[in-house]
């Protein structure tokens, strides 16, 4: 089209010039003879009307040049309607033509000047122009030969105020302008070739290739010098400086003359102003580019390529360079932008281009560097591709800057990055119309360092050391590392977020974010968590600080709940936590803590939880309801093995299971299943009256017991019911046994308790407790005695215990029943907790019992009947066991045994005893005795239990009419068999006395050297037969017959015990064998120091049936003496004496001897006189 316009312009110019010449000048006849030729061959005037108001022809002024001046030239299409404007109107046209060559049929133009003209080419709706047949294709019309040739070599053309108007409504084309001034020179270089040089000033009204889109260069001035060349193939405009509007451009062009070939226009401006340049574009493109701006001047080089065909869209390519300018893309303003790029009004279909759309464009920027909201953005290559729908950015981007910019971009509502820096590497592929969607659809990796996350609803800041997010599709990998508290607490998170849209696009609440993370920390404490929310803590609030109420600060707890619920609402997290050490104040410490956390509504659920607590591994589950103000309902499930409850006492106390003070020992190896629920008052801790639960447990490694504890709120406080069953060893532990221990069997223990007692004393006063032990044994530690227990029942209430004890021997199945009570139970179980003294009252009874049973019951024989100790220690150990029982329990004991069998055939009948303590340190036995055969035994005494090493004692006794035969039978049964058999003993014995002394507690024996007392023996009907020792003595004395059977006359003796020495007065013993007198001392430790007087009359008395009556010492006649003293190896040594003087002299008793001798002489004299 441009080619036709240019051709038309040249032809029209020539037509105007020649027409004016033909109409206005009266030339010679030669010219008139050529008029028809000029009009029909050189000027295709068919269909055109030409009119001129005035013609001036000057021949002679510049002869041989002719000057032709036309005034008011009008050319109109005669075939169009009258409403169409004229094709051309020229106010003034001047031309100079050389006459030299006109005679050679050549029009030689030298100058052409047009002033105040208007060229108007317009088509109607059918596409027919107002140019008659001027624009018809005449290439196939046969041209006539001959006619004028036109020569414009060196033609000078000038135009002033020439209006130009081209309009083609069917094709929506419009060109409007005005040549303000033009001065041009045309040089012809050869056939069909010419060069133009022009100085021009244009006022362009607009150029529209599509009037719907608007006009290019609307109301724009253009000026400058143009160099152009024309040849048969193309028109070329050499690079030249033109002022377009307010800017200087370097312009070059290459217009191809062949239809369909591409013509190219080049424009360049080293200091382009974006806004001024945008105003040169048509309205539609201006509106489209209004969302894009470059602030400041920058270099631009544009290339416009077009085939100049109807309906074609030029290809516009703009190269530019940015060197620190600010750039606006849509609503985003980038500062300090650097890079080189290209704008192209084309977009491949593969990149979203719409075929044939004039709204396609593609902007490519290489080595891009820019700053947006403080964020530095770099990219090796960024592409903005736009079509009729949306602009799309595709680029590998590296972003670095303040973290808060991310929250601004994403329009976050609750969680904001308040400080810190970030680095983002991403492959962007998204619409610039929707930044959030672009972020959503782009993959990348984000690093944040020293960042604070603000949770707006609670005004809480979370500072982190680092945060890493790697986004792929609709999911993201997350890694987080916290900053360290002053306490050293740190943690890290790594995991994944699925369904990212709600986090990236505001308002997509219908889409649920799913977050799964792993939390790791070497150590965490509850104070660390609370410190997050306190001033100076790990998290700091934007709100003013409030006074705290203690470790469970209400505002901190409320903030904690708000944050956790905010995390649930925003992220719906599932957390797998791994923490080496977890501490809750000083209440408890957990090790190797691992758990899974998720939310169920507003409840935080812990599942698959395990940790080591107090040396044990626990499986754990919990739920905390976070949706209530001021309170937090919770529930806990736990199971573990080998748990030491003693190490959990602070935790049990904290959770409302306070153990009484004084209860020092708890099981140390438990398998438990624990369920608990309650409420936490945020400002105070566990809420009283809300705790309820159940604890099921059994002994860990030894399987000694099992039990359960149920507790729930009651009218008076926490109501607890404890049930235990198992090995009675646990009873030893529960009651702090020290010497007496249950072994074997089974126990059952029930405890019902209202409220939580403050100490053991309070527990024993308020609790209802029952204990049963069956088929067990009691071991007394100091003697290792084992006492069989058939059944033991205890009922405790109001600090009192009522008990029954059934002892049953294993071998004879004989029972002893013990019933009683213990008052002031606290003093017994925890004496340090009270100043009271406990009292025990017990009644023991048995039907039939034997000494073997006692030995078995006191543990001196094993259950199998075997002796457990040698004979020498058996009695002392039994006594020690009994003493230990009295020391421990200090009972007021009454004993009744119907029949007690010793070793013989005569039982003890109606055995009774009363024992009690006086002032808790002295054992008193009284009203003690029994019947033995026809005789009776009664005694009483005291024994100090003061804890001293030497324990004083006293004993008083009386035995009446005891049959010695029966006693001797019992003694022989008690004694072990010896190599020598013992003889027989018969007679009657009455024995009374008293004794006082000390017991050496360490040696468990009476100190004989300080024993004092008085012993009184009465014997009658005493007979001895078959005693080997007597028979041996008879043989030596040649009195064998006398000593085979010995009958002794009745006698009595009172022996004084003084410091362990038995002082025996002179005592006459008259028997059928002999008569003798015994006197002296017997030291219980050293042995005898006795003087035995043997009357010589024994020699001739023979064998008697009955003993003679006793005589006195003085009347016994002459005597010989035996002195019995300690011999070697503890044996008695006998020495023969003819007199007793030496005996007394050696003992310093010579004066006594003289006095006795005088006394005996007087007695004999008195006897003789009495006869």
Write the layout of secondary structure elements.
Blueprint: H1 2-24, H2 29-33, H3 35-42, E1 48-62, E2 65-77, E3 88-98, E4 106-122, E5 149-151, E6 155-168, E7 173-190, E8 193-210, E9 214-216, E10 220-230, E11 234-244, E12 247-256, E13 263-273, H4 274-278, H5 283-289, E14 292-295, E15 297-306, E16 315-329, E17 332-344, E18 361-372, E19 375-386, E20 391-402, H6 404-410, E21 415-431, H7 435-441, E22 443-455, E23 460-472, E24 475-482, E25 490-498, H8 501-504, E26 514-525, H9 526-531, E27 540-541, H10 554-571, E28 573-584, E29 588-600, E30 603-613, E31 616-625, E32 631-643, H11 649-654, E33 670-681, E34 685-686, E35 692-699, E36 705-714, E37 717-726, H12 729-734, E38 740-743, E39 746-754, H13 760-766, E40 768-780, E41 785-797, E42 800-808, E43 815-823, H14 825-829, E44 839-850, H15 851-857, H16 871-889, E45 891-901, E46 908-918, E47 922-932, E48 935-944, E49 950-963, H17 964-974, E50 984-1000, E51 1005-1006, E52 1012-1025, H18 1028-1036, E53 1045-1048, E54 1051-1058, E55 1061-1070, E56 1075-1083, E57 1087-1095, E58 1119-1126, E59 1132-1137, H19 1141-1146, H20 1150-1170
Parallel strand pairs: 4-5, 4-6, 26-28, 44-45
Antiparallel strand pairs: 1-2, 2-3, 3-4, 6-7, 7-8, 8-9, 8-10, 10-11, 11-12, 12-13, 13-15, 14-16, 15-16, 16-17, 17-18, 18-19, 19-20, 20-21, 21-22, 22-23, 23-24, 23-27, 24-25, 25-26, 28-29, 29-30, 30-31, 31-32, 32-33, 33-34, 33-35, 35-36, 36-37, 37-39, 38-40, 39-40, 40-41, 41-42, 42-43, 43-44, ...
Helix pairs in contact: 1-3
């Amino acid at each position: 089209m441009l080619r036709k316009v240019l051709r038309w312009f040249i032809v029209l110019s020539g037509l105007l010039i020649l027409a004016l010449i033909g109409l206005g000048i009266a030339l010679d006849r030669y010219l008139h003879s050529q008029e028809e030729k000029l009009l029909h061959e050189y000027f295709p005037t068919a269909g055109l009307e030409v009119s001129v108001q005035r013609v001036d022809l000057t021949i002679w002024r510049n002869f041989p040049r002719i000057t032709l001046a036309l005034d008011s030239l009008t050319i109109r299409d005669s075939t169009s309607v009258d409403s169409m404007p004229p094709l051309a109107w020229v106010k003034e046209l001047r031309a100079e033509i050389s006459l030299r060559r006109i005679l050679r049929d050549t029009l030689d133009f030298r100058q052409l000047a047009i002033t105040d003209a208007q060229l108007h080419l317009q088509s109607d709706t059918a596409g027919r122009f107002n140019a008659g047949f001027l624009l018809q294709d005449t290439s196939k019309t046969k041209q006539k030969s001959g006619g004028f040739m036109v020569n414009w070599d060196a033609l000078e053309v000038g135009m002033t105020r020439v209006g130009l108007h081209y309009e083609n409504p069917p094709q929506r084309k419009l060109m409007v302008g005005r040549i303000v001034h033009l001065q041009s020179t045309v040089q012809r270089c050869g056939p069909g070739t010419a060069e133009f040089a022009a100085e021009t000033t244009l006022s362009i009204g607009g150029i529209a290739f599509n009037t719907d889109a608007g006009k290019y260069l609307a109301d724009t001035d253009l000026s400058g010098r143009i160099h152009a060349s024309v040849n048969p193939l193309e028109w070329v405009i050499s690079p030249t400086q033109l002022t377009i509007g307010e800017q200087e451009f370097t312009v070059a062009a290459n217009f191809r003359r062949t239809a369909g070939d591409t013509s190219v226009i080049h424009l360049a401006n080293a200091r382009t102003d974006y806004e001024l340049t945008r105003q040169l574009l048509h309205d539609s493109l201006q509106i489209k580019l209004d969302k894009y701006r470059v602030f400041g001047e920058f270099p631009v080089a544009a290339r416009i390529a077009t085939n100049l065909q109807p309906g074609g869209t030029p290809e516009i390519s703009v190269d530019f360079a940015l060197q620190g300018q600010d750039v606006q893309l849509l609503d985003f303003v980038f500062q300090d932008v650097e890079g080189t790029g290209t704008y192209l009004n084309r977009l491949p279909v593969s990149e979203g281009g719409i075929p044939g759309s004039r709204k396609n464009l593609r902007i490519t920027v290489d080595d891009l560097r820019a700053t947006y909201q403080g964020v530095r953005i770099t990219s090796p290559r960024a592409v903005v591709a736009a079509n009729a729908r949306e602009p799309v950015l595709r680029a590998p981007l590296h972003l670095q800057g303040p973290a808060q910019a991310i929250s601004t971009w994403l329009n976050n509502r609750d969680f904001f990055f308040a400080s810190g820096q970030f680095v983002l590497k991403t492959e962007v592929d998204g619409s610039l119309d929707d930044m959030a969607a672009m972020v959503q659809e782009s993959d990348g990796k984000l690093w944040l360092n020293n960042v604070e996350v603000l949770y707006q609803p609670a005004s809480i800041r979370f500072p982190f050391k680092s945060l890493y997010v790697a986004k792929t599709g609709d999911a993201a990998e997350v890694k987080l590392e916290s900053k360290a508290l002053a306490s050293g607490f740190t943690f890290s998170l790594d995991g994944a977020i699925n369904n990212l849209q709600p986090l990236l696009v505001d308002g997509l609440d219908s889409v649920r974010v799913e977050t799964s993370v792993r939390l790791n920390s070497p150590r965490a404490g509850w104070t660390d968590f609370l410190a997050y929310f306190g001033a100076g803590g790990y998290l700091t609030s934007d709100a003013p600080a409030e006074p705290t109420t203690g470790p469970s600060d209400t505002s901190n707890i409320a903030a904690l709940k708000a944050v956790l619920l905010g995390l649930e609402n925003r992220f719906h997290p599932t957390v797998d936590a791994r923490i080496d050490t977890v501490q809750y104040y000083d209440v408890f410490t957990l090790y190797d803590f691992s758990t899974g956390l998720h939310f169920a509504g507003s409840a935080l659920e812990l599942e698959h939880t395990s940790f080591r607590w107090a040396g044990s591994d626990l499986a754990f589950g919990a739920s905390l309801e976070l949706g209530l103000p001021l309170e937090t309902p919770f529930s806990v499930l736990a199971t573990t093995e080998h748990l030491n409850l003693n190490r959990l006492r602070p935790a049990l106390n904290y959770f409302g299971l306070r153990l009484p003070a004084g209860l020092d020992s708890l099981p140390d190896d438990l398998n438990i299943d624990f369920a608990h629920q309650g409420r936490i008052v945020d400002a105070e801790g566990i809420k009283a009256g809300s705790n309820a639960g159940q604890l099921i447990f059994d002994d860990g490694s030894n399987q000694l017991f099992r039990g359960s504890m149920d507790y729930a709120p009651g009218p008076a406080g926490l109501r607890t019911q404890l049930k235990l069953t198992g090995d009675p060893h646990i009873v030893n532990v529960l009651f702090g046994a020290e010497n007496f221990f249950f072994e074997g069997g089974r126990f059952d223990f029930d405890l019902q308790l209202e409220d939580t007692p403050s100490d053991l004393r309070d527990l024993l006063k308020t609790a209802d407790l029952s204990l049963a032990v069956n088929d067990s044994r009691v071991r007394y530690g100091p003697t290792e005695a084992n006492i069989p227990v058939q059944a033991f029942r205890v009922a405790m209430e109001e600090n009192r215990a009522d008990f029954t004890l059934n002892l049953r021997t294993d071998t004879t199945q004989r029972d002893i029943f013990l019933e009683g009570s213990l008052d002031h139970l606290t003093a017994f179980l925890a004496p340090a907790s009270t100043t009271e003294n406990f009292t025990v009252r017990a009644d023991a009874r048995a039907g039939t019992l034997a000494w073997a049973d006692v030995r078995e019951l006191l543990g001196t024989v094993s259950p199998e009947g075997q002796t457990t100790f040698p004979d020498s220690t058996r009695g002392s150990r039994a006594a020690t066991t009994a003493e230990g029982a009295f020391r421990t329990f200090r009972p007021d004991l009454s004993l009744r045994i119907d029949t007690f069998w010793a070793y013989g055939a005569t039982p003890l009948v109606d055995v009774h005893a009363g024992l009690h303590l006086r002032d808790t340190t002295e054992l008193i036995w009284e009203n003690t005795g029994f019947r033995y055969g026809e005789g009776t035994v009664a005694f009483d005494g005291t024994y100090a239990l003061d804890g001293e090493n030497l324990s004083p004692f006293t004993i008083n006794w009386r035995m009446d009419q005891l049959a010695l035969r029966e006693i001797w039978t019992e003694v022989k049964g008690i004694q072990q068999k010896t190599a020598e058999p013992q003889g027989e003993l018969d007679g009657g014995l009455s024995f009374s006395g008293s004794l006082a002394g000390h017991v050496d507690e360490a040696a468990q024996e009476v100190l004989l050297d300080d024993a004092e007392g008085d012993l009184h023996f009465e014997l009658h009907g005493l007979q001895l037969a078959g005693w080997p020792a007597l028979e041996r003595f008879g043989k030596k004395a040649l009195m064998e017959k006398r000593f085979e059977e010995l009958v002794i006359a009745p006698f009595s003796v009172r022996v004084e015990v003084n410091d362990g020495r038995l002082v025996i007065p002179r005592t006459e013993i008259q028997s059928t064998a002999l008569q003798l007198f015994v006197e002296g001392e017997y030291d219980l430790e050293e042995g005898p120091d006795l003087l035995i007087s043997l009357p010589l009359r024994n020699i001739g008395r023979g064998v008697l049936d009955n003993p003679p009556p006793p005589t006195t010492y003085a009347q016994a006649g002459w005597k010989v003496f035996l002195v019995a003293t300690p011999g070697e190896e503890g044996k008695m040594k006998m020495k023969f004496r003819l007199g007793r003087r030496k005996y007394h002299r050696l003992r310093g008793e010579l004066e006594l001897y003289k006095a006795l001798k005088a006394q005996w002489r007087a007695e004999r004299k008195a006897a003789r006189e009495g006869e």
